[in-house]
Amino acid sequence: MTNVWTIWKHALGSFSDEQTAGNDDIICVVRSFIVGINMLTCIIIVANVMHNW
């Protein structure tokens, strides 16, 4: 599971700065939340278009 989390962190953005290494998990959670909100918004828009077709 650690490998999946590492891949997900790098997929959301590069973490190459040693100064922010301690905050990588927090940054990833925030970015995951933003991606999740965007996905939810897209699903709601598509559902609305299909419902009112």
Low-confidence stretches: none
Number of domains: 1
Distance between the termini: 42 Å
Question: What's the overall average pLDDT, rounded?
Answer: 87
Helical coverage, percent range: over 70%
What is the oligomeric state here?
single chain
Separate helix tally: 2
**Beta-strand content bin:** under 5%
Order of helices and strands: HH
Number of DSSP-assigned strands: 0
What spatial form do the alpha-carbon principal axes imply?
Answer: elongated
The largest sheet is:
none
Descriptive report:
The chain has 53 residues and is mostly helical. It has one domain (2-12, 22-51). Helix content is 74%, strand content 0%. The chain has helices spanning 2-12, 24-51. The mean pLDDT is 87.
Q: Which key features would you list for this structure?
A:
2 helices, 74% helix, 53 residues, mainly alpha, 0% strand, single chain
